[in-house]
Structures are given as C-alpha cells and as structure tokens.
Write a structure and sequence with these properties.
Length: 367
C-alpha cells in the first residue's frame, strides 16, 4: 500500500491503529461471531461498547457529573436546527438567540435558527473577511437570550478561539452553545463554561453519521412542540441515546478513537502535539513570500490551516505535484479558494513535515 497523508477537512484521517483494529474485528467482535454492524443495539455486546465510549469521552474531556453525553445523528448542520428546537423554549416566545458570527459555519447556524426564533448577531467578523474572532468586549449580547451560539473552530476560514468564551452576569442566564465539530478533543477545554457542546464526528472523532452532544442537565426539557422526539435531548438522555437506533458502528469506531487518544496520553498530550504541528506550518507561512495565511495570528486554527499561493495561477500545478508526493486533499473550500491543510489529531507530525518539505521544494522550483 502506498503511503499517503490525507489533509481532508472531513470526513478526515483516522488513526491507522484504529482502522487496523476495526479490520481485525470486522467479522468477529471479541468472539461474538458477529460484526458490530450486525449486533442489536440493545444486546449486551453493544451496550458494553457504547458504555465504554461514553465513559472514555467523559474522562478525556473531564465532563462534569451534571452534564449528559448524547450520541445522536444529523451531523453538525442537523444541530443547527436541533439546538434552537431544544433551547428557544427556555424563554417566552418568540425567544431570541445571540450569535457570534465568525465564518461559514456560524453563517449557516444563523440562517437555520431564524426558523425557530429571533436571531441577534451580537458580533460579526464579516467586515474583516472572517479573519479573526471579534474581541469579547465588542459583543453586544441580548439581556435575556435563550442561548449564545458560537463556533469555536471555523473549519473553512481557519479561525479558532484561543480564549474561553464567557458570558457575563449582565446577560442573564444565557448558556453558551459551542459548535466544536472540527476541534473537539484537540485541546483541553473547561466543559463547565458551556451549556451545550456539539460536534459532528467526522473531523476528529470517527465516521460521519454520529453527532456528539454534551448538554448541562438543567437545559433539558425545554423542547419546542415542533421538535421531533428523536431530537429532543431530554428524551434521548432519558433513554441513554437509545430512543431510536443510534449509529452503532460509528459509535464503535469513535470508542476505538477514544481509547487510542487515551494511549496517546489524553487531550493535554495531544494538544501539545497539535501546537507543534501547527507551528511548523504557520512559522513557514510567515517566513515565505511564496505563500500566505490571512488570519490574525492570535485566532489561527491549529486544526485547519488555510493558505494561498501568491501566484494563484500555480494552484492546479501545486495540487497535482502534491498528489504525486502522496499529499492528498489540500484544495481549499470552494467558497474561499486557495489551499487548506487539515491536521487533526490523527495526522502524525511526519505528515506535516512532508507537507512542509513539499511546499518548500515547490516554492524553490517556481520562484
Ligand atoms: C463539518 C462541520 C459542520 C457540518 O457537519 P455536517 O455533519 O456536514 O452537518 C458543522 N460545523 C462545523 C464547525 C464543521 O466543521
């Protein structure tokens, strides 16, 4: 098999060890004679898989006791509707949600939330081309919002919160809802600062189809009447994520990734590796005249590194030459163009070093 490095933004690279273990267990999980895909979600075997996945995730993120971990379907975009359906009901109707608009993903969240309540854009980085997170002291939060929505890592724009967002006593009891789809488990976070954390699995956790929701218990039980039962967090929590059939195989793979992450030393250890990986690329991008990154230095994403060739006429040649060296899926999102290297937890530093060496060679050959 040829060695490649996969820089896809998602679905994305998974740890090789995890894929090898899944392959070895594919036809017969632990002597059960069955593939995990074929098991009843209520059988003892799968119940042990989901219980381990949940407790490993709780341990990795130090999720406090008064938070539920839910395994859902619907992806990050599904949550854009599921969040307002579950939280707008905390306040008299029509309720308002505050948004910190930092790029493509919050843009989609804002549009969807408008179907279920009022939206207040408390701060926006649109006028600066989504190159930074608006400073906390510029946020114009509502007095009585049902919640404050933000995206702590904008996957397309390459903008990441490098501070823990907090809402003050002056803004009432609005909980922070954070879309962490593309950097969950990449850095240490203080879960207690958030009301809800959600993320699609396909960036840093496992296969597409699984969505993780971590929700503080007092936020359960406020669903609007229009909310489908399968997406009512209280119903899902009361049924241990088994109200409907959960995405069983995706949960199994996520569980293997959690075990892999524990073997790496947990989130604090992987965060150090992620800092080192990102530094390699950003240091070079800042030093070269051939490429550029346009994001404010204190808001740069460690997971998704967008960059442009100063001479964009070379884009196609860059991508073809990268592919020939086994460096795959480097094309930037069509809405922003250029290139993007997604370097999630499962990307080894060797992959980043190979990319850096290639970028240097390509710059030298074309200067
Ligand atoms: C990928 C992504 C999503 C969308 O996930 P889907 O599973 O495609 O719905 C939402 N938010 C962020 C930040 C993402 O990176």
């Amino acid at each position: 098999m040829t060695t490649i490095f996969n820089f896809s933004a998602g679905p994305a690279v998974l740890p090789k060890e995890v894929l090898q273990q899944a392959a070895a267990e594919m036809l017969d999980w632990h002597g059960s004679g069955m593939s995990v895909m074929e098991m009843s979600h209520r059988g003892a075997e799968f119940m042990s898989i989901i219980a381990a996945a949940q407790s490993d995730l709780r341990e990795l993120l130090a999720v406090p006791e008064n938070y539920k971990i839910l395994f859902l379907q619907g992806g990050g975009l599904g949550e854009n509707a599921i969040v307002p359906m579950n939280l707008m009901g905390r306040k008299p109707q029509p309720a308002t949600a505050d948004f910190i608009h930092t790029g493509s993903w919050t843009g989609k969240s804002i549009k969807e939330a408008q179907k279920y309540g009022k939206v207040n854009i408390a701060a926006s980085a649109e006028s600066i081309g989504f190159t930074a997170v608006p400073a906390r002291d510029s946020w114009k939060l509502s007095k009585d919002a049902a919640y404050v929505h933000l995206c702590t890592n904008e996957t397309i724009d390459g903008v990441e919160y490098q501070f823990t967002p907090e809402v003050g006593f002056d803004t009432g009891d609005a909980p922070i809802v954070a879309d962490m789809s593309s950097h969950i488990l990449s850095r240490v976070i203080d879960v207690s600062k958030y009301g809800v954390i959600f993320g699609g699995a396909q960036k840093n956790i496992g296969p597409a189809g699984l969505t993780i929701v971590i929700v503080r218990e007092d936020l359960l039980g406020h669903a609007l009447p229009c909310c489908p039962s399968a997406f009512d967090w209280k119903i899902v929590a009361d049924n241990d994520s088994m109200y409907n059939t959960p995405p069983t195989y995706a949960i199994y793979i996520a569980g293997l990734v959690f075990q892999w992450l524990k073997r790496q030393g947990g989130v604090a250890a992987i965060e150090q590796k992620n800092i080192a990986k990102a530094k390699l690329l950003y240091d070079y991008l800042d030093a070269t005249d051939f490429y550029e990154n346009r994001i404010a230095k204190d808001c740069r994403s460690r997971m998704n590194v967008p960059f442009y060739l100063k001479n964009e006429a070379l884009n196609a040649e860059f991508l073809a030459a990268a592919k020939a060296r086994g460096l795959l899926q480097l094309k930037g999102h069509k809405s922003v163009g250029g290139m993007r290297a997604s370097i999630y937890n499962a990307m080894p530093i060797e992959g980043v070093q190979a990319l850096l060496a290639f970028m240097q060679d390509f710059a030298q050959q074309n200067s």
